[in-house]
Amino acid sequence: MSRDRLTCLIPTYNRPHFLRRLFQFYEQFPLPCSFFVADSSHPDAAAENLAVIHRVRGSLKITYRHSDVDVVSKISQTLQMIDTPLTVICADDDCLLPRALQHCVQFLESHPDYSVAQGIMAIVNRPGKPPYATAGYSLDDDDAIARCRKMFRFNFTTFYGVNRTATLRDNFQTTTTSIDCAYSHFFPEIMLSQLSVMRGRVKVLPEIYYLHEEHDSNFAGTPKVSDPSRAAKLEQQFRTSLSNQFEQLGVSRMQAERLIQKWYGLLPGLDLMHSDHFTVRRLRRFLNRTWRQVMNLAVRDGTIYRRPLRAADWSGQEAEWQEAIRLMTTHPKGISLSEVAKQRAA
User: Which of 117, 182, 213, 286 is the most exposed, having the fewest neighbouring CB atoms within 10 Å of its CB?
Assistant: First the structure.
């Protein structure tokens, strides 16, 4: 697969240590694509990012752009500049496995009615706990509303899947023009997932595709909303925007509003916003976790939402898997400039 088919979009914010670690991996195991780094860092961190990119540009094709906007708007702006037919988003602290990524690209190129292809996500680096696998569910229904219903029931993100660029660009543009994305990740992510299944099918392949690192700075740079009126406004923006999209599918306004109330009326969507209500947040998390467990037991198609990792998950890409895990466990906070100096000295 040539680089002119796929772009890997990497949003970053004040984390050159993670960007340095990510490109150290891709120097060893290059992705079959070009890279686009969308940066919104402060000047010192941006200068470090540019130095990281300059060092690896001999082996990797990388485009760099800086803009002072929130992460969703930053990605939306960057998508306007990408000219490859497919795009995959990779966080600066995560990792994509090349072989599985190529399988996703091959699947989309041979199945034009699918908008997203992705694999199993491995959640790594949780203190004291082993990595585990989490996978969404292939949504193969012909009917878009049926796919939307399943997306609500299973509620997984397509944010990091391989997407058709034109569709992903339109999804982000719709989201950023209808929802204030500077104050919450929750509603934009739900909106983007629903838009992706409205506009095509979703395929989840049975192999490790993406390594996601859990740590306290995953959502750095995104302020919490403590103002209830602003939180209510964000929720109303989400409901109105999603209703508009359902109307384009031929659903009446009244029916769309009823569906949204039924599907999203009880979700813990305001957890990130009402940060002072600790007890309420704990209760909502418990209810959401219990709901997921019940739904997992109810699924009979052999797909499991969350389970321990198995060696078969990374079959054929053992070296890539082992190196990605080594980097994440050896450098859980990325690779600093001082660590680079030690590596060169050694």
Answer: 286
Decide the pairing of beta strands 34-39 and 6-12. Answer: parallel
CA separation for the pair 30, 60 (Å, rounded):
8
Share of the chain above pLDDT 70, in %: 82
Residue 125 Ramachandran class (φ > 0 left, ψ -120 to 50 alpha, else beta):
left
Q: Show the 3-state SS of the chain.
A: CCCCCEEEEEEECCCHHHHHHHHHHHHHCCCCCEEEEEECCCHHHHHHHHHHHHHHCCCCCEEEEECCCCHHHHHHHHHCCCCCCEEEECCCCCEECHHHHHHHHHHHHHCCCEEEEEEEEEEECCCCCCCEEECCCCECCCCHHHHHHHHHHHCCCCCCCEEEHHHHHHHHHHHHHHCCCCCCCHHHHHHHHHHHHHCCEEEEEEEEEEEEECCCCCCCCCCCCCCHHHHHHHHHHHHHHHHHHHHHCCCCHHHHHHHHHHHHCCCCCCCCCCCCCHHHHHHHHHHHHHHHHHHHHHCCCCCCCEEECCHHHHCCCHHHHHHHHHHHHHCECECCHHHHHHHHHC
Lowest-confidence segment of 35-44, 65-74, 252-261, 277-286 by average pLDDT: 277-286
Question: For residue range 114-158, what is the model confidence (pLDDT) as tens digits?
Answer: 999 999 999 987 667 788 898 778 999 999 999 998 888 777 889
Residue 202 Cα distances to 119, 133, 149, 163, angstroms: 11, 18, 13, 10
**Burial class of residue 179 in the structure, from the number of CB atoms within 10 Å of its CB (0-12 exposed, 13-18 middle, 19+ buried):** buried
Distance CA 125, CA 123 (A): 7
Hunting for tokens 């939307």 — which residue is that? 148
The label of the residue with tokens 């078969």 reads 312
CATH classification (class only), 6-345: alpha beta
Task: From 96, 1, 99, 33, select the one nearest 317 (Cα to Cα).
Answer: 99
Report the predicted TM-score, pTM, of the whole model to 2 decimal places.
Answer: 0.86
Residue 268: pLDDT band with limits 50, 70, 90 = very low
